Amino acid sequence: MILVRHTTPAGADGICYGRLDLALADSFETEAAAVRAALPPGPWRLISSPATRCRLLAERLGQPVTLDPRLAEMDFGAWEGLRWDDIPRGILDPWCADFVTARPPGGETFTELAARARAVAAEIAVRPDAAQTVAVTHSGVIRALVTAARGLPLADAFTLSVPFGSVHIL
């Protein structure tokens, strides 16, 4: 399985976004070409988060795309679209101290994200066809799957580097 993080979103600096459907930066075409060049030759089975920033990249990769909502980024609930600096420290700090099991107001835990991402990976692992799968998704999903593949605890997820447009082979 090959995991690809979406390219740079527009206007995301300092903003809490997970499910927020952001537009793509002006660098999209260049970044998409670099992602395509970093992938092995197809054909592959191509799946994607339904978020525009993932779907548009997946569509540029030249294979039919299946959208899977389980590949969506973490739901930050009431924090979506807020500046990180505007979230009260008394609410944000406890979440930061235990992001694995703490829940943003109205959102989901990182454990819940990991469970749905790992369910997708488990289904792919038992597919009878030989096609390699490329999943265009988000940093949270990639971190959850890479920690599982490496036998690391979820608490170590943010020690992993997952830049925009990065490719991760499991």
From TrEMBL:
Q: Which GO terms describe its molecular function?
A: phosphatase activity
Example of a GO cellular component annotation carried by this entry = cytoplasm
Cross-referenced CDD domains: HP_PGM_like (cd07067)
What SMART domains does the entry give? PGAM
Signal peptide interval? none
Quote the InterPro entries the UniProt record gives.
Answer: His_Pase_superF_clade-1, His_PPase_superfam, PGM_Phosphatase
Protein name from the UniProt record: Alpha-ribazole phosphatase
Species for this entry: Magnetospirillum fulvum
Its ancestry begins with: Bacteria, Pseudomonadati, Pseudomonadota, Alphaproteobacteria, Rhodospirillales
